[in-house]
Amino acid sequence: MHLLKHFKELTVRPKNALELKGLILQLAVQGKLTANWRKENKDVEPASELLKRIQKEKEQLIKEKKIKKEKSLPPITKEAIPYELPVRWIWCRLGQSGYTQTGSTPPKKNPKNYGNFIPFIGPADISNKWMKYPVDGLSELGLSIGRLIPKNSLMMVCIGGSIGKCNVNKIDVSCNQQINTVTPISVPVSYVKSVCQSPYFQKKVLGKSSGSATPIINKGKWEVLPFPLPPLEEQKAIVEIVETLFKEVEQLEQLTIERIALKEKFVTSALNQLAINNTKKEWAFLQEHFKGFFNETSNIKKLREAVLQLAVQGKLTADWRANNPDTEDATVLLKRIQKEKTQLIKDKKIKKEKPLPFITKDEIPYELPDGWVWCRLNEVCEYIQRGKSPKYTEIPKIPVVSQKCVQWSGFDISRAKFITEESLDKYGEERFLQFGDLLWNSTGNGTIGRVISFPKSNFENVVADSHVTVVRSFKKYVLTDYLWIFTASPLIQNIVVGRVTGSTNQTELGTATVKLMEFSFPPVKEQIAIVQKVNSLMSLCDALEQQVQQSQEQSEQLMQSVLREVFEGKKELEEV
To answer: What is the distance of C-alpha 227 from the center of its chain?
Structure first.
């Protein structure tokens, strides 16, 4: 078996730790973790005798009126056996391991039913890792109407998206009707927990639940689920081995988390040094550590952000400027743009706007290289306007770009809705999107600030809705790709977050805010150099991400290899 041989490799990724725990439980309930134990302990009492003793104890509890008499559970037929068990094990029903209950909620119209006499557990209080015990629970009166769930019972959520989650209560509690419970008799509750959290049993729970939107499994269906019962001494051995393996998985998982955290700390520090110190020198240092530190997706994301930030600060093109000292200054370009803008206003192609305020010293986020200039974004644009939402139709003629279409990964026209040709009279010609227009998401938590450049489209006319701001620069002076690099850079994205308005439910980036945005304006030729440099470094990030993906696939293949070795050729393949 490859499980222990590749234990450390299997826990290299945090995701694998969860899968590995599931595999450990699956091996446990099949008797595969205790194969050697059985060779050394051949004379233990068989589980069939244990089951008789459990039944006898249950009858005594009923006689003493400590539990209610239950309906007899049907025997397990040969056809219903999920997989073969080791010698001295037997299949029984879950309910035969103890006695089962479903919770009950006392009437809420009587406040005297509730208090702090006993915790009242709901689905949100149960996790596979922990249980919560609310301070506010039932009163003594409320408990007399509800259910007492004795400590050391297995409690499982039996409805909704959390169905199957289960754990053991360490104190007496009560619970609502969305929870099924089993209180074991002469069976360690920790073994019952191992079975109930195993992939085998979890699949059984889902398979026997009813309802598509909201799955539910009632007590009657739950308590008859097949339950693998080993000899009592072997149950104790299983619990001990599972706990030992879980501790090792958790230790390795913690080491993995700490390793990732240390890498992220190093990467964050190194990328900050890029922005502060000699970029060329720091970049050379960083390149030496690419393989060791940029093997996590989160760190590559930080590298992409750093590249964009260094680009708009002019730090990627310091050598270029040294080799091109006679490049036309951006202040000259700005004057040329202003002259063209004045002519467009005179020709009534764009509207005259109020003069923009000068950028103060306090507004400047960072110093620019020689030849660059700070200006307002609207100074280099002929058009900045929020879109307009029309009445929609299902006829695919004129698409309307919404915030759903604007993704960091690119423009998604398939998410666009459509308007009729008859509605076009509500849109001036300036509202038709042009190739290279910047589309800036301007509303919504989680989507605000996303930017893309509008690509070439198969549709003759495309417009934007009211959730998107369209930014149209003077493209011969401000390259579309540079404008995207600037607006996508972390600094500008953080500025956007700081300047949005609205409630926590619906934030908004106003058009005036976009127009007044500070813009670091380089010469056109340097913009070309910046775009080329960024594209090259983004290709490097793509290659690093591909390596991470390959590493993850190899880890996944190793996990699948272990699973195949455990299950290949066995009947349990049909169930697990």
So the answer is: 34
- Strand-by-strand arrangement of the 179-184 sheet: 98-102, 179-184, 154-157, 166-168
Task: Report the distance separating Cα 478 and Cα 524, nearest Å.
Answer: 7
**114-115 and 137-138 strand pairing:** antiparallel
Sign of CA dihedral 139, 140, 143, 148: positive
192, 155 Cβ separation under 8 angstroms: no
**CA dist., res. 490 & res. 468, Å (int):** 20
List the domains of the chain with CATH numbers: 1-44+242-326+525-576 (no CATH), 49-230 (3.90.220.20), 328-522 (3.90.220.20)
Spatial distance between the Cα atoms of 218 and 100, rounded to a whole number of angstroms: 11
* Contact partners, residue 433, CB within 8 Å, separation at least 6: 401, 439, 454, 457, 462, 463, 464, 470
Taking only Cα atoms into account, the Rg of the chain, rounded to an integer number of angstroms, comes to: 33
Which pair of tokens denotes residue 257?
């988390």
Alpha carbon distance 153, 149 (integer Å): 7
Give the pairing of strands 98-102 and 179-184. Answer: antiparallel
Asked if residue 123 lies in contact with residue 89, where contact means CB atoms within 8 angstroms, the answer is: no
Q: Residue 31, SS3?
A: coil
In this structure, are residues 449 and 494 in contact, taking their beta carbons and an 8 Å threshold?
no
Distance CA 254, CA 257 (A): 5
Only one residue has tokens 């290949």, namely 568
Q: What is the pLDDT along the chain (576 residues), one digit of tens a residue?
A: 445 555 555 555 556 677 778 888 988 999 988 999 999 999 999 999 999 999 999 999 999 999 998 889 999 988 889 999 999 999 999 999 999 999 999 999 999 999 999 999 999 999 999 999 998 899 999 999 999 999 999 999 999 999 999 999 999 999 999 999 999 999 999 999 999 999 999 999 999 998 767 899 999 999 999 999 999 999 999 999 999 888 888 877 776 666 666 555 555 555 555 555 555 665 565 555 555 555 567 777 877 888 888 888 888 888 888 899 999 999 999 999 999 989 988 988 888 888 889 999 888 988 899 999 999 999 999 889 998 887 777 767 788 888 888 887 778 888 888 887 777 777 778 888 899 899 998 887 778 888 888 988 888 888 888 889 999 999 899 999 999 999 998 888 888 878 877 766 667 888 999 999 999 999 999 999 999 988 888 887 787 778 777 766 666 666 666 555 544 434 433 333
Rounded Cα gap, residues 430 and 575, in angstroms: 62
Q: What span, in angstroms and rounded, lies between the C-alpha atoms of 568 and 563?
A: 8
Kindly report the pTM of this predicted structure: 0.58
399 and 417 Cβ atoms separated by less than 8 Å: yes
Those residues with Cβ within 8 angstroms of residue 365's Cβ, 6 or more apart along the chain or in another chain:
491, 495, 518
Question: β-pairing, 154-157 with 166-168?
Answer: antiparallel
Coil, strand, or helix at residue 168? strand
> Do you know the residue count of the chain?
576
